Amino acid sequence: MQRPVAIVVAIVAAIIVGAVVWTQFMGGEPEPESPPPPPPPVAKVEPPPPEPLPAPIVLPPLDESDDTLRAMIEGLSAHPRLDDAIAVDGMVRAFVTGVVAIANGESPRSMLLYLEPEQSFAIAEREGKVVIDPASFERYTWITGVFSSLDATGAAELYADLEPLFNEAYGEIGYPGERFRDALEDAMGVLATTPVPEGYVEVRRRNVLWEFRDPALESLSPPQKHLLRMGPANVRLIQSKIREIQAALSR
Fold first, then answer.
1. What is the domain partition of the chain in residue ranges?
2. Pairing outcome for strands 203-206 and 129-132
3. CA separation for the pair 143, 234 (Å, rounded)
4. Would you call 140 helix, strand, or coil by DSSP?
5. What is the per-residue pLDDT for 35?
6. Which of 75, 103, 144, 212 could form a disulfide with 186 if both were Cys (CB 3.0 to 4.6 A apart)?
7. Phi, psi of 169 (to 5 degrees)
8. Closest CA to 108 of 117, 118, 97
């Protein structure tokens, strides 16, 4: 559909052309044309003012970042035990060190001792097999609930805001000038792809420790075996949230 201005121009042009053609066919001399009136002044359209840029986030020094990070994390979840899950000093360094351990296939246990359950590991006999007592998995239900309650998009945005602090801590432990995001992606991949057994999880005694009876599970890396000891239901919830965060980080 033509715009109204274009239609008007087309009508005017048709009238002028028709007048010229008519005078030529009649053989008469055309009357001198008066000069066309000057075109109306074009109204100057002011461009809209640019939207103001968001104020840059001023990050605190790494040694003083706990309060800032804790306040930002508290905006990601309303879980009643969120504070228990982040009750550690030097949060950025602890997180970075734990993630690097997982990415490298090493146990992050030393960074997470404050999260260890008070109840002891227990086994049970089911269908003639020695298995991890399903009640043992309930020791980790609360921390799984906290992690599952996090807003994945908010977590990705928080990471983007604080990435310079994570990179600084990453450089301190031997990776100067490198991106911590690479280690984070590797660690999430390790946990997200850990195979989850169906049914009871069989174990056997080896010296003074218990190990998985299934050689495929026992051959997994220490962080993957730590994850499996949380129980299949908890593992699936954790893996689901990890995939949500992975997707949010890739946008």
1. 62-249
2. unpaired
3. 9
4. helix
5. 64
6. 103
7. -65, -35
8. 97
Enumerate residues 6+ apart whose C-beta is below 8 A from 15.
none
Structure tokens at 88: 């550690």
pLDDT in tens, 189-221: 999 999 999 999 999 998 888 999 999 999 999
Asked whether the predicted pLDDT for residue 144 surpasses 70, the reply is: yes
Q: How far is residue 21's CA from residue 15's CA, in Å, rounded to a whole number?
A: 10
Whole-angstrom distance, CA of residue 156 vs CA of residue 176 = 23
Cα–Cα dist 223/102, whole Å: 6
Answer whether residue 51 shows pLDDT above 70. yes
Nearest to 192 by CA among 135, 249, 128, 139: 249
Q: What is the DSSP letter of 119?
A: S
Cite the DSSP H helix spans in the chain. Answer: 4-26, 66-73, 82-85, 91-103, 134-137, 141-149, 152-172, 180-192, 215-218, 222-228, 232-249
| Exposed/middle/buried for residue 246 (C-beta within 10 Å: 0-12, 13-18, 19+) | middle
Task: List the one residue out of 102, 250, 91 whose CA is nearest residue 165.
Answer: 91
CA distance 227 to 212: 13
Q: Bridge-partner residues for 124, per DSSP? A: 131
Side chain identity at 21, as an amino acid letter?
Answer: V
Reported pTM: 0.76
Structure-block tokens of residue 18: 């028709």
Q: What is the pLDDT of residues 59-69, one digit of tens each?
A: 999 999 999 99
CA 187 – CA 108 distance, rounded (Å): 11
Calpha distance 228→215 (Å, rounded): 14
